[in-house]
Amino acid sequence: MFVLPSVVFLLCFSLGPILFALYVSFHDWNMLTPVGQMPWVGIENYRYLLFEDPLFRQVLGNTFVYTAATVSVAGVMGLVLALLLNRRVRPLALWRAIYFLPVITSSIAVSIIWSYFYNSSYGLFNAFLAAVGLPQHRFLSSVQEALPSIIVLGIWQAVGYYMILYLAGLQGIPQELYDAASVDGAGAWRAFYYVTLPLLRPTILFVLVVNTISALQVFDIVYVMTEGGPVNATNTGVLYVYETAFKFLRMGRATAMSFILFAIIFVVTLVQLRLLRGGADE
């Protein structure tokens, strides 16, 4: 009886909408037709997206590039910063706050500010490039530069989160292990490879899985800064779902797209768990 309210809430506001979205994905619904009169199309929405929609494939490619770049680069940078801050840097709390500030700052506010930084006419970045004698760039208005510009912002936002998690993992490693490694003649690199890295595997697993899931669902910074442009160069999976559903009123196709994205995230997560959990268990 104590658990029943939570179960009812879960069924009504989580499982219920998911099942309804799955039902809608097999129909051609424009949200104007009554639910009971939605035309049934079977797996046509899935077939079209997987085999006939070139934009969907481009969007998935953009999403994978963004995810791979932000997770890998920010992950390495976060670990490096955590290792530096773990050396009793003073004041530690101040440095933690500085690096973690982008994580807790509103993504919308950050995106608006960085849009001004990237502005090709009066942006801060081009002003700095001009001051040091380097050629200016178009950044968000360039097909070639727009996605890398979004990736830079994504890395800047994520690196503080990585750093805090890695720092917590590092501070949980007993100092006695490093002392024993030093007695055995291990240098800094060997101590990192044979002591730090193995004991940090659970943290690496958590960071990699959680941030990969988050990166595959990127929406807000892309929507604010470019709305997927120019020429869909920065369009991502969730943004394409949003546009298909609420701009073009193709809710059936949008929900099918959501479940395809869910399947991709599920498979990627399973692969990461299988590859890294084995090393963590060892």
Describe this structure in words.
With 282 residues, the chain is mostly helical. 73% of the residues lie in helices and 0% in strands. It is globular.
Write the layout of secondary structure elements.
Elements: H1 4-24, H2 44-51, H3 54-85, H4 92-104, H5 107-118, H6 124-131, H7 146-171, H8 175-183, H9 188-199, H10 201-216, H11 220-225, H12 237-247, H13 251-281
- The level-1 CATH class: Mainly Alpha
Give the structural class. Answer: mainly alpha
Count up the helices: 13
Overall pLDDT confidence: 89
Distance between the termini: 42 Å
CATH level-3 fold name = MetI-like fold
Taking pLDDT < 50 over at least 5 consecutive residues as the criterion, the unreliable ranges are: none
Kindly report the name of the CATH homologous superfamily.
MetI-like
Quickly list its features.
13 helices; 282 residues; mainly alpha; MetI-like fold
In short:
The protein is mostly helical and 282 residues long. 73% of the residues lie in helices and 0% in strands.
